[in-house]
């Protein structure tokens, strides 16, 4: 499941809250230039094992 975030701060907040609420790390917030030059995302697994991503293409 993928959610588009408004900006990079929102991606970081998604990641922080997901881990706090029991999710596990699947990829800390950061750029993924192999996906796209402006791709900034974070990946977590929820307690049920679903992989969830928050992503933005905003440059800052």
From TrEMBL:
Residue span, VOC domain: 1-57
SUPFAM superfamilies: Glyoxalase/Bleomycin resistance protein/Dihydroxybiphenyl dioxygenase
InterPro entries found in the cross-reference section: Glyas_Bleomycin-R_OHBP_Dase, Glyas_Fos-R_dOase_dom, VOC_core
PROSITE patterns noted in UniProt: VOC (PS51819)
Top-level taxonomic group: Bacteria
PANTHER family cross-referenced by the UniProt entry: GLYOXALASE FAMILY PROTEIN (AFU_ORTHOLOGUE AFUA_5G14830)
Protein name: VOC family protein
Source organism per UniProt: Sphingobium tyrosinilyticum
